[in-house]
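Replying to the earlier thread about multi-chain prediction with a worked example.

Input:
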Amino acid sequence: MVEAILINGLVLGGMYAVLAVGFALVFGVAKILNMAHTAFYMVGAYLILIMSIMLGFPSLPSIVLAIAIMGITGRVIYKLFLDRVKEHPVAVMIISVGVAILFQEVLLIGFGGHFRGIDPFIHGFVEIGGIRAAYQQVIAIVTSLLALVAIRLLLSKTQVGNAIRAVAEDREIANVMGIDVSRICVITMGISAVLAAVAGAVVAPVFMVHPLMWLHPLTIVLAAVVLGGLGSIKGSILGAFILGFAETAVIFLVPMGAFLRGAVGLSVMVVVLLLRPEGLFGVVFEEERL
Amino acid sequence: MGSYLYRLYRGFQGEILAVPGRVIALIFVTLLFLLPHIIPHPLVLKIFSLAALFAIFAASWDFLSGFTGQLNLGHALFFGVSAYSAALLNVHLGVPPWATIPIGAIAGVIAGLLVGIPALRLRGFYLALVTLAFPIILIGVIFVFPDITGGELGLFGVDRLSGSRVLDYYIILLVATASILVMWKLTDGRSKIVRTGVILHAIREDEITARASGINTVRYKLMVFSISGFFAGVAGGLYAHYIRIAGPSILELFFSFQPIIWTIFGGIVTIYGAVAGVFILYPLVELVRLHPVGEIYRIVLMVLILIVVLLFMPQGITRWVRDHIEEICPRCKLINIRTRRYCRACRAPLRAEK
Amino acid sequence: MSRQVKVMLAVVAMLVVLMPVLVACPPVVEEVPTIRIGIIGPMKFTVGEHTWWGAQMAADEINAAGGVNVGGVMHQIELFKADSNELLSVVDAVSAMERLITVDEVDFVIGGARTEAVLAKQEVMADHGVIFINVGSAHPEQCMRLAADYERYRYFFRGAAVVNSRYLGKMIFALVDMVAGEIRQELGIETPKVAIMMEKAVWTDPIVAAAQAKLPKMGMEVVGVWRPSPIAADVTAELTAIKDAGAHIIMTAYLGPVGVTASRQWGELEIPAAKVGINTDAQSKRHWVATGGKVEWEVTFNFIGPVEITPKTIPFYTRFLERFGDFPYYSAGVYDSIYLLKEAIERAGTLETYAVIDELKKTDFLGVGGRVVFTGIDSPYPHDLVWGPGYITGLGIQWRDGELVVVWPDGRAVLGDKAWEGIRFEGTVDYKLPPWMVEFWKGRQ
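Result:
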């Protein structure tokens, strides 16, 4: 039982982590609560679906293309919609909700509300001590770790990364130092959308593809990111794994209450926040006066 | 008596007739009250009954999140708790609507306090995301006790508000008008009768200074949570008796987003903006829906209107309109119509001469 | 008044003035008298789409054949489509129903999917006194309301082919019994172990309770009960636990999207237990594509299949598949409902609501899904469908190589009920266990 919880929790947490990383990045840098993040994930999944199944492209090129398109879409959306109102954080959040609903409706009208599926890279499963995990789920864990490493490298080794960190640290000072803050935000949004599309490629084959698929992961992503501390990428991944383990434990310990997994995950988040209002890795701000 | 009436008339003239925004509001409310006589169509009555009900809901969100900056992404919780309480009492115990709706509203207050107390520890987006979690957790709880809550069916067969549609409409409209007036008065920073408006303003702008000035900010925040819960609860109770079912759909994420969309569209931190947002967007979408093509694209249309309005008037539509038709006197702070060049009371020039 | 004020006033006035113009839009001048039927459902989703398809097909056929004879005058059927959006918003469903009745002024409404929304729509139905045939939601409560207040809710009928979920439960037991028999024969396991994995919902609760009580008496052992949420996007952990428990059969009941996930992950992980029960989504051809074929070997209840339930079934099935490219399911119920409504109207000779209700109650109609007879007022579920051998029963279908084959009724007695003996429709084939499951358990012995 314990090993089953561990393995399944790891698998689930890996998938949540892929979804959460990009969201955490944008919040950390641009201070934008991008509610459309999981909608990007959905659009990424649909792009792959359109290219690989409807147009008959091979799977890898269609994934790469989908990721590229999403990278551009993310930047365009930031430029078009979010950049202009960035002084009003609530308006930004509402617009991102609007963008997500817009995506949902366009997909609903264009493709109907039917459930669809993307083929995994490799069919089949591995068996560890009698516990089975699909190859695709293993790929999700590896991807979440790779994404973490890649972001780490990007942030610490490249010039853009330095600029992103500078902006995340202190916008005004970064601006004074000659960094184009607006451009950095656009780039970050692009990276985040790319990560969402990667999630679409890696996670969507395990789940389902349909126009409402952004709603459930949205609560998961928000919970994971808040749990880890807003803005902390490391924290968000940890948060994702905590949720993964919590949900899996519910299923194994109270099978009759398996439907409560989401509620339990969110309750864990509420409890953690009440004990540590800034999340696990969040920075404690002194009460500031603006 | 005569002089009293005259003073009343003068007050009316000064407070309402001279302020264009209030004239519009007055005409609008009058039209709403005459609606069953102008257009006695049942669908129109249904749409405007629902709009009035949602107006309370949206205004109560604005009261909490707009006026204190406590961003609540789970406002459906208050609505849902109240709708469920009213429906439970009505379906299981046969309590009539005139009692269940106030009791439901009190349940909304309790929910408000339950969220409000932990909310004192959390700030900004953390609070927003915790509040978002509550209604979803409640859905889980509802499914644990299907015998009481009806599970995915909800509680159905709730008594209707009154015997007729027109009466239903008037009850909802009256309750809505009263609730919105109370909320508006409570938040009115210029009011000489209630001080809450000015205090809430102070807390939102600078909490530490407000505290230093001897304002018990904790008490005020909790008060706002419970008042907001109360009015969202009123809306929830009305909903249960109007749609005649209280089901889990009213706790879903989308239901929490709706009042926010309406309020932001109409104009946050105004109360009347929330009301205008509902009365413009909701009937518009329903109107578009009558056409087969409109039915397909109605939500796309709504979202596009929302985004465009926010991009060009990030303060919302009513504040944009207000800024274009009203001018506040720089000296005596009285509201004047924009066409005036000098203040109607103190004769100070409203704008610097060109 | 300044210009801006005038503009604002004009906008408000326009909103108010435009409303009656659009609402009171005069209907198109009619040459042929029509019967107006409202079709309501979540039109952007599979359920709504099928509701509309079934209605279209029936209406086109009836109109081509001359229409409906109402007291000697031929009427054409005119359909009105309303998107209830009920999977997302119950309020939307209520306004859509209101619109059909008060704006489109339909004589009858057919449709319905989410139970919460159907219950709310029943209120609108009762307020206006319009006949409403529900084809999507299977919950018994809708008919129990008639028993409680017949005067108010008598306009409601459960459409052909949607079986009351109490009977759905009985059907699942029959299917499980069939699979258990195969396991005993093929694998030599005397007491197969059953894992109950049903979505958490009011309609499945009695089935779960009955399963726990009944399965041991049927020579099976219950190893556990898992209740995922109807919208769960991942059930890997449940499936792992079920495999861990050594189950041979997974007894399912899903209406929600969890059904797709469950099929997909069950096939991908090759869980060595036969999946049998209800999985609504698995009744559509799209399910095969959505699961990448992983649904193969799963058994689910269905309303209709490519077998000769009645002489009308196969022709309908083929025509439907040709026209819409999908297997019929909800659509069969809508199709039959329109036909039986037509017959009731013709018998009544009028469109008057109460006369039509009286005739609907007397319905004895052989449709594509079986023989339709409604239950009486004295039944605990008035205006529901009579279920059992010789009436509407539903079928057990299995997915094999992209096709649906019918595996039940298999001609054997059901749980000792001899009435089922010999009921096996032309075209039915024998049930088969998933090959990986056979391999797994044979390897153990």
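Chain B is about 70% helix and 5% strand.

Feel free to reuse this layout for your own posts.
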